[in-house]
Amino acid sequence: MSDIFNNELFEAFASASDHVYIYVCDMKTDISRWSKAAVDYFGLEGEYLEDAANVWGQHVHPDDLKAYTEDIEGVFSGKRKYHNCQYRARNASGRYVWVECKGSVIWDAQGNPIIFAGLMTRIDGQSKYDSLTGLLTTQELHYFDFASQPGIALLIGMDGFRKTISNYGYNIGDELLIRFSRIMSDLCKPEWRVLRFSGDEFLVLAFMSDLREMMNFYKELCRETDTIKLEDGRKVGVSISAGGVLFPKDADSREVLINKLEHSLEFAKNNQRGSLIFFSEEIARNHERGLVLREDLKQSIQNGFKGFELYFQPFISPAFGTIAGCECLLRWKGERIRDSYPMEFIKVLEDYGYINAVGFWVMEQAIRQQVAWRERYGELQVSFNVSYQQFLDETFEERAIACVKKYGADPNYIIIELTESCQVEAPKELAAIFGRLREQGFRIALDDFGTAYASMEMLKWLPVDYIKVEHSFIRELAQPGHDIDYVIVDSLLEMCRRLGYHSIIEGVEDGKVADIVGPLNATLLQGYHYSHPICRDDFEKLLDDGKTRKDGQMIK
Ligand code: C2E
Ligand code: MG
Ligand code: MG
What we know:
Elements: H1 8-14, E1 20-26, E2 31-34, H2 36-42, E3 48-50, H3 52-57, H4 65-76, E4 83-90, E5 96-107, E6 113-122, E7 151-158, H5 161-168, H6 170-187, E8 193-198, E9 201-206, H7 211-225, E10 227-229, E11 235-237, E12 240-247, H8 254-271, E13 276-278, H9 281-302, E14 308-317, E15 322-332, H10 342-351, H11 355-377, E16 381-386, H12 388-391, H13 396-407, E17 414-418, H14 427-439, E18 443-449, H15 455-461, E19 466-469, H16 471-475, H17 483-499, E20 502-505, H18 511-517, E21 524-525, H19 536-544
Helix pairs in contact: 5-6, 6-7, 8-9, 11-13
The structure holds ligand C2E and magnesium ion (2 copies).
One magnesium ion is lined by residues 447-448, 468, 506.
């Protein structure tokens, strides 16, 4: 019997409530365990069930079976991140009761499901009001007819609410949600309905078709909630995004409406934060592309990283005018999607937990390549990118060290770039990891420095060797009216010198910018002016042109 069933944790959760039921399914054997309360209430054969999907399916109300099956299939095919569905289920006495079923899948590194676990909550007779905000709950959605009455629905979500909670704590998070929901309710017309959808997401339903009125409402809501004053006088900045759907034009049932609202909100958050975006064919296509992208990426990983390739962009030493090394940048082509850029596919890798597997592949290719070039071109400084979440993998350090040993690389020439340094939630732990990697000889760089307001704060915590100045400051240095950018870059480099860091200026796009940044004495320069990121053969041609430092000395 699988370990996941035989633990005290299961027992503890199972006995915590008599109207919340838990289930855990071992996907390899298709055997699941259900809490005793669920067995009794729904009249199941026993705590352990084989082929539970089928057994449980027979308890689901025939009218709800389609929505239930689609939701479950969506989770296993990767279309949805979580199983989250409300439906009627038959209990032991043959009566149908409303339940809210939420669950998620744990995948192995190859992308196969290993565990499916979740909670089922009886929502029959439960309060129709949310206990925190006093707003209606989603249960209310069962009573609306979306097919015959025209209207507009908005799903409004707070941006980065998880980050707000980690900065301010749960109590402040609750206070914000309460205040936000009050402001929103006050701005809504009395005949509109406001519901708490989930954690930081709210649903507004208006049975009218005046789009302009809805846009104005949203604008006002953004203005009014831009900063929320707390009871203790503190002010917290809040940003929101929203998805909108017209019914019955774009959705004539609850399920379709929720689906399209979620896709539209997701689109707004990813592409136009802060905006209200109405459902369109583009959003449907975007969502579809996301699904294909995920499936193709999974295939690539399972096929030995087929389709992944490293490109190389030279680092130029301003002191010598030669190539001192390069940054390794990931490229990928899938079976069906051939035109995805890192900004897009890396986000998918991060969101679905594939970035670690791919990241180790990148690390190995980069280190192996550094060694392969050594004989012909001397020691090049080779960097590769690592997202914060990759450092959270406990094996990261050990694998980095094993990798340099395996290929005989000198870690002094390997630069690890931390991307998106703004998202670091545990800087002390990260500082310890950096410290140990540096003891082993690795070099650490903070990528895109200067964009996140937390960048400066990061410097206080993190022991690093290089600062890479974010290219948005650099790219337009030569344009009129960008004197401020120059002052920022100049001051950042001065700060690097005083604090003893090396600096890399990236985004040197053309000769004009190169002339401006030249006198700033950065350690290394990088940008389209010298070369775009290029494949290995092309990079080697550049090196063969003699633009390297063959003396093999490190740049100090
Ligand atoms: P980054 O690490 O800041 O990489 C620099 C990006 O700037 C690259 O985009 C590069 O092509 C682009 N770039 C270089 N010079 C110029 C220039 O002169 N002008 C302009 N406008 N852009 C320039 P790319 O290759 O699309 O990568 C985007 C981001 O994706 C990277 O930003 C990095 O954060 C991430 N990334 C790339 N490869 C990996 C990887 O292997 N692992 C992880 N975790 N992230 C990666
Ligand atoms: Mg980088
Ligand atoms: Mg960068």
